[in-house]
Amino acid sequence: MRNYYIAGNWKMHKTRAEAAELAKALAAQLKDGKHKYLVAPTFTSLETVGALIKGSNILLGAQNCAPEEQGAHTGEVSVLQLKDLGVHTVILGHSERRHIYKEDDELINKKVKLVLKHGLEVILCVGELLEEREARKAEAVCETQIVKGLAGVAAADLGRITIAYEPVWAIGTGKTATPEDADAIHAYIRKVVEKRYGAGAAADLIIQYGGSVKPENAAQLMAKENIDGALVGGAALKADTFVPIAKFG
Ligand code: PEP
Fold first, then answer.
1. Is the pLDDT of residue 1 over 80?
2. Mean pLDDT, rounded, for 175-186
3. Is the pLDDT of residue 214 over 90?
4. Which of 13, 66, 88, 122 has the most beta carbons within 10 angstroms of its beta carbon?
5. Burial zone of 6 (CB within 10 Å; 0-12 exposed, 13-18 middle, 19+ buried)
6. What ligand 1 atom has the least distance to the C-alpha of 210?
7. Is the minimum distance from the CB of 211 to ligand 1 under 6 angstroms?
8. Candidates 11, 165, 212, 241: which one to mutate for ligand 1, based on the most atoms within 8 Å of Cβ?
9. Catalytic residue among 99, 166, 180, 216
């Protein structure tokens, strides 16, 4: 039985005071929420937000980390530093990291393994560009990103992996994949995982959908058999829009 998992990615938004205001509102308004919740503020707000959601039902997430534990890596943040702040999960392979900052599957895989090694969870984002969808390559792109992203990850660690399917053309654009289209890719992703890790692991895998999820479309997406939650960007920036998504249905 899979539990729904709703995560908010705050991206490069909010000062500490603004992040604190949102964290307080979410902790109060999601107190009676039934699902698994996570917020991923900017690095600079992790400590502030972490203190405010401590003891609540909201987990602390980071949006990225370095592929190395420590050393001469100017501008990077180590998983050890994130762990020290109480971070529970690291989002890796987000399309903005892949396409703006040119992170490839090998780099993402290195980060995945490092985060798992230090006991944290991972949300691994995958998804195709518009031209890849139009060329009917969506499944193949997701398969490659999953196979390469999880290379060397042991079956025993798969329980700490969540996959977020985020078609790049739907992120921040207001365009959402139809629940049917999203569900079809989610089902395919589950098959890819089944081939490598077995039916039990695939059945337990949480696969979030991401891409312009809003209060108006959350319930229809979540009603689909293979959609187990959401990774939310824009609508995660306000309690007024994130809470109804988090409490969909
Ligand atoms: C995201 O960045 O992960 C995302 C899904 O953004 P949005 O909800 O704004 O499309």
1. no
2. 94
3. yes
4. 122
5. buried
6. 5
7. yes
8. 212
9. 166
- 112 phi/psi in degrees, rounded to 5: -55, -50
- Is the pLDDT score of 174 beyond 90? no
pLDDT tens profile 6-33: 999 999 999 999 999 999 999 999 999 9
What's the average model confidence in pLDDT over 29-50? 98
Residue 60 near residue 53 (C-beta atoms within 8 A): yes
Enter the tokens of residue 249.
């249905």
- Tell me what pLDDT residue 172 has: 87
State which amino acid sits at residue 191: K
Contact partners, residue 17, CB within 8 Å, separation at least 6: none
Q: Are 193 and 146 in contact (CB under 8 A)?
A: yes
The answer to whether the CB of 2 falls within 8 A of the CB of 224 is: no
If residue 189 lies in a helix (H) or strand (E), which one and from where to where?
A: helix 179-197
193: its two tokens: 């995982």
Alpha-carbon torsion (147, 43, 130, 99), positive or negative:
negative
Mean pLDDT score across all residues of the chain? 97
- What is the CB-side half-sphere exposure of residue 80 using CA atoms within 13 A? 4
**Would you say how long the chain is, in residues?**
249
5-246 folds as TIM Barrel (3.20.20)
Model confidence, pTM? 0.97
Q: Give the Cα separation of 53 and 184 in Å (integer).
A: 35
Residues in Cβ contact with 210 at an 8 Å cutoff, skipping those fewer than 6 apart: 9, 125, 127, 164, 165, 166, 170, 171, 230, 231, 232, 233
Q: Where are the domains positioned within the chain?
A: 5-246
Candidates 159, 157, 93, 79; CA nearest to 126 is 93
